[in-house]
Each structure stands twice: as structure tokens, then as C-alpha cells.
Amino acid sequence: MRLLTLFIILPIVLNAQIKAYPIDSWHSRIEFNVKFSGLLPVKGQFTAFEGTVLLNEKDMTKTSATLLIDGNSIDTGVNLRDNHLKGEDFFEVEKYPQIVFSSKRVVHKEGQFIMIGDLNMHNVTREVEVPIQLLHGEQLDTWKNFRITLKGKFQINRSDFDIGNNQPTIGQMVTIEFIISARIFNTETIALFNRPFGKKMIKAILEEGKEKAYSQYKELVKNKDEDTSKASSFEHLYQYLRQNNHLKASIEITKLFTEIFPKEPQAYSLLGDAYFQNNLYKEAKLAFEKAISYDDKNTLAYEMLKLLD
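Above: the chain's sequence. Below: its structure in C-alpha cell form.
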């Protein structure tokens, strides 16, 4: 199953305080530390991961997250050791390629927030407690995107996940430390809206609705507009409509998105969001479920279904 790339996720609001942010793996880190021979610390990281954070800055106990890690991306700086870790003695990445964390709740205990969730690794699921800290709430970054950053540190016993059971030289306890940066793109920075596709499609959907937008789309295809072949073009259209509170039009554009790209998981995720923003929760749930039917690692859809259940 491919890793899902979420370029755009708009503020998804259960109430005025909760927003959904896609994890920016380029500016995030997931690292681990374990002792070798009981003496030497061995450090490593996972370099390929993605996910979604639902953040409530005013009440962190309502925060939630789903994280998907590519086990094959383990990197300790030594190829021979990395290949050993990927093999039968440890992660068996050919059989179990993904590591998944899904939060269940956040509690405030002893002056800190603890995210409690299920960690699935090596085909074993265990509940873990992860202390988290919000380094900063939503702020504009250099590119004027809306960004948040969290960090955390916790330990697991590798034997709990049947990893390296016959490797006595490796310590049992593994320390995991992370910094997660997540962001929502700002439509003011997207070049699409300076090109014919963006300008004409927005005008059509706002002034005359879905049918006019489809006619405009076919005309752009006829004129060989390159933006018509990209699913991301419709994601940008949706983002623009959501950011500017054109909620009804956001349903129409995502319906058109699903018709033109009928097997694109993100089309159904955004349709689900559009329904959700219009308080059509039954329709939203069906759309998110369909997104998962096309990609069962769609972290946005899973996070939203948590809210809808």
C-alpha cells in the first residue's frame, strides 16, 4: 500500500477550535535510541512518514493524531546494520512494512499532556502513553502557511512487539523522540489562481455552479490546459473555497472532483470534509469511508471518522 501524500488539508472544524493539519515530514523528525551491549547508545531515525494531527489549542485533551511510518526507511547511518534491522531478526519489513500510531485520547496528568493510543508494529498492537508538548500553536511560516509544532518522548519495550527476541546484545528499552511540524497551505501562496484554470474554474463554480464548472473544465481540456490533468488542481480549488468560506460551493467542486478522478482517495476525503463543514455528517461519514476503501492508510479520513463516531 502506497504512503498517502496529503498536500492540502483545510481547517476541519468540529468546533471553532479544532483544525486538521497534515504532518510535514520534511520538517519533522522521528528518532530512536537503544543501548548496544548495555553500554553504547545507538541512534537512528525513520525518514519516511506522514499523518494528520487534529489540534485543539484551547483544550489539548481534544487533540488527536494518526501517524504512518514506512519501516523500510529506518536509518542508523550504517547500511549493514539497517539491513539487519529490516530483516527477520527485527522488523521484517517485507512482511510488516508499516508502523502505525492512532491516538485514542489525551489526558492531563502531573502537569503534562499524555496522548494515549495504539501503536502497531511488527503486526503487534500495544497501547502506549506519549507525553506531548505544543511548542507553538498556529503561526504563519516563511511561506505564509499555517504551521504548528509538537514534540514528545517516550519509551517502549521492544520485546512487547516481538522485535529482536533473540538479540541479547540489544537493550530491551527503546527511547523514541519526535518533533512533528504540521501545516495547512495558504491559498494566497498558490500559483494556480494566477493561471487560467484557477481563475476560470473559481468564477464558474461561484457564479453558476457545478454544471458550468464542468463545461468550463471540458473547454480547458480541449485547449490542452496542463492543470486539468492534475488531481492537485482540484485540491487547490477546494482549498480556496474553504479558506474563503464558500461552503456550499466546496461541496459542488468536490463532487466534480470525484466524477473526474473517480478513484482518487483525496477526492473523497475532501468531499467528506465539505459535507462535514455543511453539517451533513451522514454524507461525510460515507465519503470518508469511501476514501479509505481506495486507500486504507488515509490518515485524514481515519481522523475524521474518529470525530464522527
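Confidence is low (pLDDT under 50) at residues 1-11.
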